Amino acid sequence: MTGQTEQRFSPLPSQSVPRYAGIATFMRLPYLPPEQSEGTEIGLFGIPWDGGTTNRAGARHGPRQIRDSSSLMRKVHPVLGLSPFELANCADLGDAPVNPLQIEPTLEMVESFVGDLVGRGIMPLAAGGDHLVSLPILRALAKKHGPLGMVHFDAHTDTWDRYFGGCKYTHGTPFRRAIEEGILDPKRVVQIGIRGGLYSENDDNWGLEQGIRVIRIEEFYSLGIERVIATAREVVGEQPTYISFDVDCLDPVFAPGTGTPEIGGLTTLEAQQVVRGLRGLNLIGADLVEVSPPFDPSGATALVGATLMWEMLCLLSEKVDQRRR
After folding, report:
1. Confidence band of 2 (pLDDT split at 50, 70, 90)
2. pTM, entire model
3. pLDDT at 6 (0 to 100)
4. What's the CA gap between 210 and 199, in Å, rounded?
5. Cα separation of 305 and 292, whole Å?
6. Sign (positive or negative) of CA dihedral 220, 223, 227, 232
7. Which domains, ranges and CATH numbers included, belong to the chain?
8. How far is CA 272 from CA 17, 265, 268, 277, in A?
């Protein structure tokens, strides 16, 4: 991106249009079909799909409820001092096409959708959907940036191999596939908040053997937030880096609406603090996944998801502004 982009995209003004009014879009931003997205620098979009879920489905409904909850977001980050909608042109680009009945065609459709955005110079910020949707996003980004680093927030490593005998593509396998395909550099991947039981004592060994830096929840609390942030920044370095945030990284007290909850997780404040600590990294995109509204009729988990997307949007917008300058 070169030159000065005219700032012409802005959320609906909440003091003249009530937050409960109007058509729901991410952060109340204008909706633009991808083919009409000229001038967009950060594209927010949904991936309403949970075909990789092996037990409690429902994340396909996440993007719609996150959109509704995101009407509560405001314009200025009081801690970082950033106003993302002044730093970058942001728009809601709708939902990626999906096939609720087939996995691999959906992966291809999402990759094509994101590839089109990347080709237009748009940085992706996605709302899932189950965690398998990260794989096609990474595929599309790696075609431009090469092998990527990643800061991965999750209760699970998602580097397991196959389910039910031979299924390669589930929400527990995306990052194993990404490493095997050469689109993630495992030595530039850090996983934060890992916990919960395993099917066997060897389940997480493969990722460790590849060089992934895994910060289990026990180490998270022994290190403290500042050292966790420093470790993450050291691991990913200055090369292109992606953020993937599975909402089950949080303790289910804060985010009950998810398919695979694990007790003993991060608080919402701790998650915000770590995300903010990633400011200045060479970020090229992000996602927020596994919000499952059927398991949280209150909508609290969708609000958590929308807020964390806004936190990541602040970081992405600053990076867009720096690159433009």
Report:
1. very low
2. 0.95
3. 64
4. 20
5. 10
6. negative
7. 29-324 (3.40.800.10)
8. 28, 13, 6, 9
